[in-house]
Amino acid sequence: MEPNTLGAQPTSPLTRIMAGIQERHPHVAPGPVDDAPSENEPGHPEYHRKRRAEWALKRWSAAVPPRYRSAEATLPAVQAWADRVAADPTTAGSLLLTGTTGTGKTYEAYGALRRIAAAGSTHPYEIRATTAADMNGLLRPNGSPRGVEEELRRLAHIPLLLLDDLGSAKATEWVEETTYRLVNERYNACRPTIYTSNLPARSSSVPDLASALGERIVSRLSEDTTVVAMTGADRRRRGAA
Ligand SMILES: Nc1ncnc2c1ncn2[C@@H]1O[C@H](COP(=O)(O)OP(=O)(O)O)[C@@H](O)[C@H]1O
Ligand SMILES: [Mg+2]
Questions:
Q1: At what angle are helices 45-63 and 105-119 packed, to 10 degrees?
Q2: What number does the ligand 1 atom closest to the CA of 74 have?
Q3: Which terminus of the chain has a lower count of CB atoms within 10 Å, N or C?
Q4: SS (H, E, C) 130-193
Q5: Does residue 106 have its Cβ closer than 6 Å to ligand 1?
Q6: Fold of 51-238
Q7: Domain ranges of the chain
Q8: Using one digit for the tens of pLDDT, what is the confidence trace for 99-154?
Q9: What is the whole-number distance in angstroms between the Cα of residue 138 and the centre of ligand 1?
Q10: Ligand closest to the CA atom of residue 166
Q11: Is residue 241 scored above 50 in pLDDT?
Q12: Ligand 1 neighbourhood includes 102 CB (under 6 angstroms)
């Protein structure tokens, strides 16, 4: 008998099967079962991208309030920003959506977060959404059992943060200081944030973010932030909701 290339004394069932195959079909080389998977099979990059997108969209669904469940990023500038975050969150910078009440800022913000999830990028999809008012409450001395420093650390470290309605309440010195620390830490760590505000970033004629939150914060924001001014009527009054 020909010497068996897989060993003369097959022991395990698998070895015996492989030896049998080799004997009967010597031209068949052992190897991966499927070395050219289709995009619906494990091993194909598209298969894994889709699984990551499904997982991220589940996280998005868990974080989004019911009102914004159908949110989409509709503006080209917002879509482009979301695509940059999906490609590389460390170079995308932040997004500031400004506009009066009802122009669709929160909708657009959740839409951007959904678009990032749907991209199925390899970067971790962890999001946190809070209004600036809730954040201020949390970061007040005694505002949280975890303590201000721990809350601030969590907000600074989450890969994607939505900070809604920035500058809507009169900022105390304390709020200004903690907001600055958060904005600055996220800026230094190159973590993207979506800010929304009823106020324009800067204006000489109407109240602006710089006067509500302090020049320091707005100058930090202006360094790496895509500003998108949303216009139009109040969608809530139009009954579009
Ligand atoms: N592009 C859109 N398509 C459909 N509904 C929208 C759109 N943008 C906003 N809305 C709806 O209009 C209402 C106001 O939008 P919202 O994002 O809350 O405004 P803002 O945050 O600027 O005050 C919400 O009920 C929202 O779901
Ligand atoms: Mg809003």
A1: 150
A2: 1
A3: N
A4: EEHHHHHHHCCCCCCCCCHHHHHHHHHHCCEEEEECCCCCCCCHHHHHHHHHHHHHHHHCCCCE
A5: yes
A6: Rossmann fold (3.40.50)
A7: 51-238
A8: 999 999 999 999 999 999 999 999 999 999 999 999 999 988 888 999 999 999 99
A9: 26
A10: 2
A11: no
A12: yes
